[in-house]
Amino acid sequence: MFLTIGTTGTPERPATDLGFLLHKHPDTAQAFSTSYGTAHVLYPEADAERCTAALLLEVDAVALVRRGKGKGRGGAPDAALAQYVNDRPYAASSLLAVALSSVFSTAMRGVCKALPGRAEQPLPLRIEIPALPARGGPALVVRLFEPLGWVATAEPVALDAEFPEWGDSRYVRLVLESDALTLAQALRHLYVLLPVLDDAKHYWVSSEEVDKLLRAGEGWLPDHPEQKLITSRYLARRWSLTRQAMERLELVRLAEADDSEVEEIDNAVLEADGADEGADGADEGADGAVEGADGAVEEETRTPEKPVPLAVQRREAIVAALKESAAARVLDLGCGQGQLVQALLKDVRFTEIVGIDVSIRALTIASRRLKLDRMGERQASRVKLLQSSLAYTDRRLKGYDAAVLSEVIEHVDLPRLSALEYAVFGAARPRTVLVTTPNVEYNVRWESLPAGHVRHGDHRFEWTRKEFRAWAVRVAERHGYTVGFRPVGPDDPELGPPTQMAVFTLTTTTTTATTTTEKEGEAA
After folding, report:
1. pLDDT tier at 68 (50, 70, 90 boundaries)?
2. 3-state SS of the chain: helix, strand, coil percent to 5?
3. CB 304 within 8 A of CB 288
């Protein structure tokens, strides 16, 4: 296998800086032992104007077979002669990608102590690979590299130049040129995309490959138009690993959009859900206190019934409203740890229940709560858990009878609430939408809640009954719904209920006028 990396220079920045960036001296030919053969690094040319580094990988086919024996494809009993007679010693593949990461590991990290700051600067780069397997043809090669800032030329290699009627092989001669990328970025692109184009790996793919992919893909893979294909092929089409990687890439994309850390995005809903459940449990004591001191003496002589937690009352109210709407296919938007999904599964009239959350950890806990891995086939066919953000439209959410936003909207920043509104009411457009949220007026009844505080630190706001009704009416009018309101929990004659619920019912399928909010939602 053979690959060259070339650059040009100026008197101020000589091309031989490439040697410092690669940490390989141009005057020395070096050899590195690998598990599958020997990697050689040499410089066909090296002066101030032009410098080219070459990586030559001599593959030991016998060692490759021995190391693969009993592991994945390498141990297949029907491989026979193909184990020894194949294109591995000649065509760029995952073998070359591994050699790149091993021989140029420091360069791939963008570290160069000899020339501080140089590694972060773009270089005029030209990369050539004489024989590259391209399952998908030259067009796929271009689709993979050009969105990354490369000018890609993929010339098909004929099966036999003397017999042109035989057509082209699956190999191309690849030339990549760019003056807008750093050397580290270029190496990371090659590390991921070489095995993707070959659509095969020479070693068993485990969960560690997900971490490798995300490290090498940092800064470019989350927004690549061929992200799904790259992820699937890199992980040898193992669907469980591909799903895991796609979920983590989505978190990265959301974090970048919100200018947040990935951990903040992943933890926010999970923590909020747990805190809300804790706050709901607190009303076991608070409900008794609301009754006042008049019954204090009587309380000493009898054992009071344990009050039903507000969280349970809320789920019961939601299930009752869904039954009234005759919904069979239900979305739980912001499902958290899956309590509502679990409750809906107990009623066979709900034939499809989909839990949606942005937090992978919350979905993992929900999966354990529901025991999805041990669920019978018929029951498992009724439930799905999906990762998605309600700040963006999602085609998967269309066509459902009902959607539930239970204690969700208060976790959304007010400036971004319009995006959620459009994603649910404008794009998904379920026939019924149920929205529950705290009634801030009732907060004075919580003895443990300091005055002026919201029920949880992650709540961006808590509305009065008037504010909630005004928002709900405005959303309904904008998107073609009618809306009604119901109390959840003890309905205080002065302060109202602890939880307020709006029931939206679709009245028209006519597409609403395009607004700025809708454009933002579509763009997202």
Report:
1. low
2. 45, 20, 35
3. yes
